[in-house]
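Please decode residue identities from the backbone states below.
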């Protein structure tokens, strides 16, 4: 019988605990604060930023938006980041992607102070994760790790296939699963015989942005299936990268979309902000 991993409930629990931690920090004179920078008016980003703002508010974390016109120069953006780096009232800095093409996003990520890099995209944090040192971990992979731990999913020695190699999800996920002693295989758009690679896995983590790509016949009986994908279908509904209805009966555990990985991503962002605030002591 398949168990559904309830990311929404788990995220709620994490956020409740964080609220108490924030209260204690405030009693200690630390007022956790997140700065979010957005360049341009990407509609998806606006929704994400609004959700992050609401989540911060509920947890008692201060939130300030820095909105820039899409023609803003890279120099202005970098100057803003440097100012926020120096501002001791700000504990976390997040640059919402995408940014307009004339801005080198990696340069911007490199400019965010590693101690305030709550998205975990500064190469210092990426490197620390790689060598197994304490790091801010990219929120989606971090949320998946939390889910696996909370549901007591054995990872050691297990074959884990990750679909997707983006800097935001796939690549940090590889490192997270290696750190959890899984044997990791990563697939991307040039991977051949992808069906076979998926079928071999005890744990499948799909992050490719292709609606219902992972089909029932690709998945091993009893596999753990984690679906990161968020795809909007023509009828306006949202679905993941996994054909949930048909894959679920074969899996031992599975995350739904929505209500799986998504809520965990925001919960881990808040976790990282609270961590950054504590480190600032
Ligand atoms: P991305 O930057 O577009 O990367 C997609 C990755 O998937 C690439 O590595 C690409 O390979 C690979 N890929 C694409 N089509 C493939 C195919 N047919 N077979 C195998 N690999 C394929 O995407 P992303 O930012 O990682 O996001 C992936 C999905 O997760 C999206 O649906 C996104 O909305 C969702 N997401 C959800 C959350 C959340 O909180 N739930 C957070 C972030 C992202 P190449 O490298 O070869 O191009």
């Amino acid at each position: 019988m398949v168990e559904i991993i309830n990311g929404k409930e788990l995220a709620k629990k994490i956020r409740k605990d964080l609220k108490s931690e924030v209260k204690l920090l405030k009693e200690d004179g630390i007022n956790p604060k997140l700065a979010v920078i957005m360049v341009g008016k990407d509609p998806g980003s606006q929704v994400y930023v609004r959700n992050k703002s609401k989540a911060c508010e509920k947890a008692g974390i201060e939130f300030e938006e820095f909105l820039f016109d899409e023609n803003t120069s890279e120099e202005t953006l970098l100057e803003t980041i440097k100012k926020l780096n120096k501002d001791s009232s700000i504990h976390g800095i997040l640059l919402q992607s995408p940014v307009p093409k004339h801005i080198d996003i990696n340069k911007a990520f490199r400019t965010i102070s590693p101690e305030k890099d709550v998205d975990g995209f500064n190469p210092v944090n990426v490197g620390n994760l790689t060598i197994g040192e304490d790091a801010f971990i990219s929120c989606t992979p971090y949320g998946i790790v939390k889910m696996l731990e909370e549901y007591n999913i054995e990872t050691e020695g297990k074959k884990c296939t990750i679909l997707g190699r983006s800097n935001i999800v796939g690549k940090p996920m590889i490192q997270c699963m290696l750190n959890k002693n899984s044997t990791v295989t990563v697939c991307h758009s040039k991977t051949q015989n992808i069906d076979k690679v998926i079928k071999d896995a005890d744990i499948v983590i799909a992050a490719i942005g292709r609606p219902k790509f992972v089909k029932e016949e690709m998945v091993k009986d009893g596999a753990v299936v984690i679906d990161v994908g968020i795809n909007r279908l023509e009828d306006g509904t949202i679905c993941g990268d996994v054909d949930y209805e048909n894959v679920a009966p074969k899996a031992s555990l599975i995350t739904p979309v929505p209500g799986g990985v998504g809520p965990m991503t925001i919960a881990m962002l808040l976790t990282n902000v609270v961590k950054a605030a504590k480190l600032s002591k």
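Observation: The chain has a mean pLDDT of 97.
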